[in-house]
Specification:
Elements: H1 2-112, H2 122-127, H3 131-220, H4 226-240, H5 244-255, H6 273-286, H7 316-330, H8 340-353, H9 362-370, H10 375-387
Length: 393
């Protein structure tokens, strides 16, 4: 009886320990899941902020270009107006000279009508030969010239007034354009300031996203450098004939360019017993502890299991079928699914086999990569093949 009680106590103790450990792991996993959710939500929020800020930069840049065009145009009008003012000033100066000259001509003609009586009596001058005849003819001629000169002076004076009015209108126009120029230049200063602030915000948001992604990568299973991703895609493209951009699009969809390579262990992934056996074999050949190696979690958006490995997200049985060709193309034997170069070479090799060496075959190859006939998956890959640069910060 005592022995039974002792065994019972041991059993209860062990059961208590198991329950405590289970509760501890449960809450640990819940906390980690909460951290993952928060990190993803923060990344999504920061990404949306970046998109909005980029839109603001584009709007401000367009406004800057419009303002700059208007400033150049206004400065051109001011310059032309100033030149026109200067031209009219010269014309007015010339008219003043013409008026002065015609007044002098008129003065000389008037002087000819005067009689010089300083040495001779007036009567002698009047009785001199031919005076009366000359006087009549010269007088009419002088009067005629006088009228013409006065007419010319009147015309010149009228032109001078019109030019003065035109000059005044131009001066007002110049002042108005200068006011507009000042307004546009001040507005340009504000636009430039807005662009600088927006770019500073972009830099801060990018730094924030990088920090969040590093945090998320540590929760989900490691990340790789973008330099290695691009270099590995280039090498794989050259070896297989699959275009680099398409490989990069696949990598965005599969692992966000290597940032999220898996957050579950082999048990949590719910992989099949068959794949689990191969997974353990792969880990053993590479010297990894299969219990600690991270793989993808079960998908939420479609039917399937987790267990995908590395940046290329290969299932263990699929990887096994490509080991020989990966080794021959990359030189690593055995190849490592968690190695970025091996993983991307595996991805490109499978895509090439499924027809992605031609543009027309890329969509089908993408669908086969996921398994099934998911058009949404193909559409996402092709979109990111064009726009993966948005993911490279």
């Amino acid at each position: 009886m005592k022995r039974f009680c002792w065994i019972k106590k041991i059993f209860v103790s062990l059961l208590t320990i198991i329950i405590v450990v289970f509760i501890f792991h449960f809450f640990l996993n819940q906390a980690q899941a909460g951290d993952i959710y928060k990190a993803k939500k923060s990344i999504s929020k920061a990404t949306n902020q970046i998109k909005e800020t980029k839109k603001q930069v584009v709007v401000n840049q367009n406004q800057y270009n419009i303002n700059q065009s208007q400033i150049v145009s206004t400065q051109s009008v001011i310059t032309k107006t100033q030149k026109e003012i200067e031209r009219k000033e010269k014309v007015i100066q010339n008219l003043n000279k013409r008026i002065k000259l015609n007044k002098q001509i008129l003065k000389s003609y008037i002087q000819e009508m005067s009689f010089d009586n300083s040495n001779n009596p007036v009567i002698n001058f009047v009785l001199s030969r031919g005076f009366l005849n000359d006087l009549s003819g010269n007088f009419d001629q002088i009067i005629n010239v006088k009228e013409k000169i006065l007419s010319v002076i009147g015309d010149i004076s009228q032109n001078k007034k019109e030019l003065a009015l035109a000059k005044e209108a131009l001066a007002k126009k110049k002042i108005e354009k200068q006011k507009i120029l000042v307004v546009k230049q001040n507005e340009q200063v504000r636009v430039i300031s807005n662009i600088r602030r927006a770019k500073a915000t972009l830099a801060q948001l990018t730094a924030k996203i990088n920090a969040l992604r590093n945090r998320l990568s540590s929760l989900l299973g490691g990340s790789v450098s973008m330099h290695d991703i691009k270099n590995a895609a280039k090498i794989a493209s050259k070896a297989t004939g699959v275009r680099k951009d398409f490989i990069m699009g696949m990598l965005v969809v599969e692992s966000d360019l290597g940032r999220y390579t898996g957050g579950c262990n082999y048990k949590e992934s719910r992989m099949s017993s068959y794949r689990k056996t191969i997974f353990k074999s792969i880990c053993k050949s590479l010297g990894y502890n299969y219990k600690k190696k991270k793989v993808s979690c079960p998908p939420r958006g479609y039917l399937g299991t987790g267990g995908a490995m590395g940046v290329a997200q290969f299932m263990s049985d699929t990887w096994k079928g490509y080991e020989a060709i990966i080794a021959s193309r990359i030189g690593h034997n055995p190849p490592d699914p968690w190695n970025v170069y091996d993983g991307i070479m595996a991805m490109a090799s499978k895509l090439a086999k499924d027809g992605a060496t031609r543009r027309s075959g890329e969509c089908t190859a993408a669908k086969r990569y996921l398994g099934g006939n998911h058009q949404w998956y193909c559409d996402r890959v092709l979109y990111w093949a064009k726009n993966y640069g948005e993911k490279i910060n």
